[in-house]
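Q: Two folds, back to back.
A: First:
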Amino acid sequence: MTPNPSYAVAANPVHHDGNSLHVLFAGESQTSPLHALGPKIYDYYLLHFIEKGNGTFRTEHHIYELGEGSCFLIHPGQLVSYVSDTKHPWRYRWVAFIGQDAHNIVAEAGFVDNHSVFTFIKEHSHIPTAISRMQEVFYTKKESAHMASLGYLYLILAEAQDVLSSQSRLTGTESQVQRTVKQMILYMSTQFAHPVSIEQMCDSLGYNRAYLSRIFKKETGLSPVTYLLKLRIDKSRQLLLERPELSIEQIASSVGITDALYFSRQFTRFCSMSPSAYRNRIGRKPGGSSQL
């Protein structure tokens, strides 16, 4: 027996005023047999999640037969059409969003090239619940609905990123070693201001230190210890010029080195002069960041 058609949509009560990311509306529908849209284009991103049923999604270059657990993202200006199955029509939820940062965010989530369609391999997806919560907060008509909808949108895109990155691993677009090294670089780039150690990073990433040191050296040419120290020295050089009111001890602490004497020795090792000499010499050059 074919379910009775239904349709509900809730719009964001907060007007889009050039926000970097903005959810326009969210909705749900039990479509009727052969329910069709397009061919047409949209001027916003429109993501659908199929809860039940079957149907066909078409772009200018591809045709996808999609069923339960599938998700497809329509990009602005993309010519598309989609139609529900005769016997088992789609029940789906959707969310529309726009904004200056939307393109970069969906690309970061993995929606690039032909990766605008995927089928979840998880037993349960949080996407339909997140879209449902969006509808609920929009119905309240509160100003806070805008912020809440962004939170739910990020949760949706985070789950999509998990699936799309998993699919990328299966196709071998990036090796596990390369991804792990990127994670190490990200960890050090965000944690260098704290007195973290390589051991702590290894524990955080869940790998043996010897293994991480070996793959990192192979990919970057530097050991993790040297890379982290160089990162800290590079940042300290910037602070020496831009913050003349800070003492050498304060700068050392600001880049995660608690021993000012050790900092001075390592700075001299990398820059062939002491921190004080560097500040005085470079800061007095024409165009220098500071004049002491």
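A: Second:
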Amino acid sequence: MYGWRIGRRWRWCFVGLSILLIASLYLLTSLPALPELAEVHTCPACFGTSLCPAIASGALSLTDIGSVPGLIGALGTKNVFFGSYNSHHVVLKKLGHTWELQGLDRALCVAADLAPDCKIKEAVDYLSDIHSLIMDYVSQSTRDNAGVLSSFHLCPSADNLDVLLSDVMKNSKNVSSDLALIHIWTLLHLNAEPLILQILPAEESWPVPRYHGACGRLVVEEYAGQPLSEFTNAPWPKRAHLAKQLLHAALQFTERHPAFRFYLTDISLDNVAVDAVGNVKFVDLENIIILDKYPSDRVKPATWSSQHVSENYGCSDCFAFSSDDICSHHISDHNFYAVCQELLVGGGNSGGLLAVVPSAALIRQPVLPTLLQQCAHSPGPKGRRMAAAQLVSALEKEASFSYFIQH
């Protein structure tokens, strides 16, 4: 009976894999050509044109059937595909569902005071002072009519928006400033991730994928590796090393930029990747709070000088926070809260990277469980940051011990 049940399970696994392979083959063979995916005809209301020559020359292409990332990418539900750019794996994103892209076109027509189904190029011609439109959007549409935060949340004011976007404008040096601003306007209304990837470039050792560029309504990013969720059962030395990187990333996003802080609001084990050499990279930066470190006295909230402590609002397994509270203080421990609760301890029903610590490690570092809980559930304004710093120290000792044992 036992052997029969195992055999039946494997037969069903084989059937399931066969169906998946057939579906994957169908989806891959039915994918549109890259020029069709790019929708260059929507420009200048698009994401950019820097990679259009790469599509024309064949340097950028969709991944063939022999690639595992290609199989996965074909089954994506949000217009995400996998490909090759100069022989490197890349991710190609349209940055939204089809209905979201259609909503972008309607928003463009409305902004130009035209009918919602107007022609895109006609709408762009009617737009005037695109810089002011961008400022107005960032300043006034922090929340939509339903109270939902926009994906690009700059606070406590948008006064220094030009400083924030200066690197994006530098990367657009091959087009006019007006065209670059239209591309920025388009991204702000749909998905600001490409802007973040240029403000915090991987080339400067930020823990994010490299941004290669755009063609029409298609952006190309580095393929960053497997999701962190694949490593929750990895050997302890590997998990300790990844956890140390995550805590360092929390510090980077909070402190490293000279003018702004970046708070992660959509964080999960599937929104962080681990590349081939073991480096962690945050791969979903669509939703982020950007805090201006040096706002004018005119816009500083009364609580600005104090530190903010993120809370779970009575739900121990929830990743809850107040964006208004974060924006009302000059600094927050939110990134440490996000990393410790969602990635290390594990929020909800998911187990985190350090949810299970080996008994041998607990003998060497008996304080680990306490530090993890203090980081996830802060006892005070500086408690979480202090716990995170001590966690890094303990994890470094574990990494050194493991290296000594292995060598």
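Q: And?
A: Residues 2-29 form the longest helix (28 residues).
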